[in-house]
Amino acid sequence: MSTTLDLTGRVLSDRYRLLSGAGMGSSGVVYVADDIQLKRQVAVKVLHRGYNADAAFLRRFRAEAQLAARLHHHNIVSVYDWGEDEVPYLVLELLEGGSLRSMLDEGIMLTPAQAAHMGMQICAGLEYAHSRGLVHRDIKPANLLFDEHGIVRVADFGLARALAEASYTEPSGAVIGTARYASPEQASGHRLDGRSDLYSLALVLHEAVSGDVPFSSDTAVSTLAARVNSDIIAHSSLGVLGAVIEQAGKANPDERYRDAATMFKALNDVAAALPKPGPLTLVPQDGLIVDPNPTNIVVTPTNLFDQDTGGDTALDMSPDAVSQRFHKESNRLNIFGRRQFVGWFMLALVIAVTMAGTFAFATSSSSTVVVPNVAGLQKDVASAQVAQTGLRVKFREKFSDDPSGSVIDMEPGAGTYVDSDGTVRLVLSRGPKPIAVTDVMGKKLSPADARLALEKQGFIVNERREFSEEIAKDSLVKTEPATNKKLPPESIIVLVVSDGPTPIAIPNVAGQTYDEAAGAISAAGFAAARRDDFSDTVEVGTVIGSSPEGNSKAQRGATVTILVSKGPELVSVPNVVGLTVEAASAKLEAIGLVAEVQNYKAGKKVRAQDPNGGSKVKKGSQITLFL
């Protein structure tokens, strides 16, 4: 029974709200989702529930997800996050241009020029991943996605490898790839490297132009068997691109391009000889798309000749049994003549015996162990995991963009069978290669220009201000660390900026004459200035105080204003006799005097006042009004 459930509306890990299904394959379902935390739309690939109970798969899934999340290339689908919330899931960038599969399903074929340019992009992504020890294992049109500009990205890096360790299967077998696009070595169970991805890419490019997948039949066994000893012969519609397809499509991996970079160059040469390609006709997906070629190749003898075993866990690999199985298959296809059948039978027998021997060696030999995948782990954790197998560990370091101390390469590779007393050599990251820091002090740059220069080099720049007796305010004092060093990218560099001289205390000059106060201010290292202010309490000509106040601190050379009393502020009393009491009160208050009314009655006129109009009084004085 399938464990594919509709999780629309579910929120995974309190962060990813699944909005709608976008695609379905044998391993799970892809949903369009909202990232609640970052408020953006993403794609979430939810694997089947059955994998959640598989400890070996979850261990591999975590390791592969970490590696895939560290792939940052414009031709690889970005993995933003991963986790387990009752079901394992991956969070991916959401691409809205559809897949190559959706284009082909609509009958849209690529021109050789378009295919060459697309192949170059795919090779660029593969070269980047292969150089970091990741083989895709499942290159097919459904895993080639486009953004809205027609740039292709490779999806599902690492997932096929994780599924290969799963004991849960959907619907059967330990999965490593898709039969329709599998390489010959995937069929025979040999160790895979990047050249297997190049063979699958050759099949994809052939189909994209001609509509035909070489050696494709209606069963996995006949498809795979035909590829073991036969090279791809390109369709005439591929033109000059056919030579690249045939080179990448050799049955023997040693006869193919040695790596994705070499195939990229060959495609680039072809593209240069072809007319400029027109834009791709993208087919954005609408609703749930089911992959017509699900990942389903199994690395067991059971599935080489019979994809429906009825639940049997063992298969009779004797020559008679193999003959009966293959004869049955060939009769069903009705494509084998007697002479052909004998040839196919011998080929099948060789493959079966080889795989049976490999399987027996891998499962029964007690003198070998499997090298665990520790890529991406820190030194101590990786060392402990390798040591658990009984293998010895040796280390060497190499500059890398990966975190310092993490494993970036290993020899032999993960999954290799080695002698139980063998040695695994782990390459550890030394972190990014140090950069010579720009000498911003020697160039006498301003703090703003120094920050710009250092940030362009990839450093993180902070600023701190300090007092300096020698360096002018707002000028650069120094950097920490000094800029005559080499530092890793993203190192923190502190720019120390001058705040001018250290503040000193201002003398208290209150009660002195101006000349005395000015002398004291100047002697302390400040510039003196004068301002005369009214004062009701300080005698005329005497210093009231200063601004800033005495005993406070300011930088040497700052201006200190000395406040000198010019006595109380006097105002002339207006004559308000004859005005109504309301008008008279308002007139007095307007110039800062206070009205005191005797025998108040609203609307009555003032008949007398004290003091009389024309008198000089202090501001705020009381004027008595008589009605």
Core attributes:
single chain; 627 residues; alpha+beta; 7-stranded mixed β-sheet; 3-stranded mixed β-sheet; 16 helices; 29% helix; 22% strand; elongated
Short recap of the structure:
By secondary structure, the chain is α+β, with helices and mostly antiparallel strands.
Structure explained in plain terms:
The protein has 627 residues and is of the alpha+beta class. It contains 16 helices and 31 strands. Strands 1, 2, 3, 4, 5, 6 and 10 form a 7-stranded mixed sheet that branches. The protein has a 3-stranded mixed sheet with strand order 13-16-14, covered by helices on one side. Strands 18-21-19 form a 3-stranded mixed sheet, covered by helices on one side.
- Content of β-strand: 15-25%
Describe the sheet with the most strands. Answer: 7 strands, mixed
What is the average per-residue confidence, as pLDDT, rounded to a whole number? 81
Number of helices: 16
Q: Report helical residue fraction.
A: 25-40%
Q: Ends: how far apart?
A: 107 Å
Return the structural class. Answer: alpha+beta
- Would you report the number of β strands? 31
Radius of gyration, rounded?
A: 42 Å
Low-confidence stretches: 167-177, 297-366
Shape: elongated
